[in-house]
């Protein structure tokens, strides 16, 4: 990362001044930190100040600290810690920034659960070969083939967001290159885990997906607002996903009823209906999976 050594040196120099020590003093064995607690405090101060420097004084370096050209998600899993709200400027029209809708098609699938699998984006109908465009100015972080996403492009934007364009038939951009809103990232397709040609479009913050339909008006192909406020509510779904990892299912066999399944797993019909989004009048189908825990 550019100039990182200079930032670290600056930070250490600042710490020396905060602790009343000159650089010459630190080099002297006679003026070493006297206690382990002082050492811990100094280290903690270093990280606090370093985080402050990278986040606010040098935001571009902070945004690119997690640069990973070989992964769709640059963090392990889909977790993001959110305690306070954060304001994100999507477009700054004073600097000629804009939003361009990736492809003007109808939504075929929404953000959220699709039966037992969570869907992290919004699907837009298209025909293989249709042009897919970058939504905002940014830099291409990843271009790769994934068994689920197929041919996919990930673009990092200066506000910390990332946009993901998946199931492409052809990729037209390279990693580590700047791209403007409206430029082609590739052509739509049906690659990866996909049933029919469509664009799978995601918006992520610190590695975690946000419902694109809370940011983009897909009916009119424009932003809902130039500025958004993210809070922990935007990421509450992650807690449900974590809880669902311990879910247990029953495969319906001939003769099964909701009451019989409830007795077998020591639960209630009402709980089964709640877990599966069904009514008590639901007719079970052989081979159907019913969540019991």
Which descriptors would you attach to this protein?
Membrane-bound Lytic Murein Transglycosylase D, Chain A; 3 domains; elongated; 8-stranded antiparallel beta sheet; 293 residues; 7 helices; Glucose Permease (Domain IIA); alpha+beta; 24% helix
Overview of the molecule:
The longest helix has 22 residues. This protein folds into three domains: 60 residues, no CATH class; 145 residues, Glucose Permease (Domain IIA) (Distorted Sandwich); 43 residues, LysM domain (Membrane-bound Lytic Murein Transglycosylase D, Chain A, Roll), CATH 3.10.350.10. Strands 2, 5, 7, 8, 9, 11, 13 and 14 form an eight-stranded antiparallel β-sheet that branches. The protein has a three-stranded antiparallel β-sheet with strand order 6-12-10, with no helix packed on it. Helix 1 packs across helix 3. The protein is α+β, with helices and mostly antiparallel strands and 293 residues long.
């Amino acid at each position: 990362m550019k100039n990182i050594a200079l930032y670290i040196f600056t930070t250490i120099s600042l710490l020396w001044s905060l602790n009343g020590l000159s650089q010459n003093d630190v080099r002297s064995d006679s003026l070493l930190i006297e206690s382990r607690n002082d050492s811990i405090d100094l280290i903690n101060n270093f990280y606090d100040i370093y985080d402050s420097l990278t986040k606010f004084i040098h935001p571009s370096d902070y945004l690119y600290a997690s640069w990973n050209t070989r992964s769709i998600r640059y963090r392990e899993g889909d977790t993001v810690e959110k305690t306070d709200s954060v304001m994100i400027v999507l477009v700054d029209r004073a600097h000629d920034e804009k939003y361009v809708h990736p492809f003007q098609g109808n939504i075929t699938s929404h953000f959220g659960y699709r039966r037992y699998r969570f869907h992290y984006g919004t699907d837009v109908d298209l025909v293989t070969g249709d042009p897919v465009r970058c939504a905002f100015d940014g830099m291409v972080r990843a271009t790769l083939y994934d068994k689920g996403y197929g041919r996919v492009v990930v673009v990092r934007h200066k506000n910390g967001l990332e946009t993901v364009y998946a199931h492409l038939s052809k990729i037209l951009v390279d990693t580590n290159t700047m791209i403007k809103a409206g430029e082609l990232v590739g052509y739509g397709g049906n690659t990866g885990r996909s049933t029919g040609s469509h664009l799978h479009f995601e918006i992520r913050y610190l590695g975690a997906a946000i419902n694109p339909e809370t940011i983009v008006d897909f009916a009119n192909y424009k932003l809902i607002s130039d500025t958004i406020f993210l809070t922990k509510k935007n990421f509450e779904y992650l807690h449900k996903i974590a809880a669902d990892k311990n879910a247990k299912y029953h495969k319906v066999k001939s003769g099964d009823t909701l009451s019989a399944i409830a007795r077998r797993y020591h639960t209630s019909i009402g709980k089964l209906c709640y877990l599966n989004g069904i009514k008590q009048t639901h007719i079970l189908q052989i081979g159907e999976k019913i969540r019991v825990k």
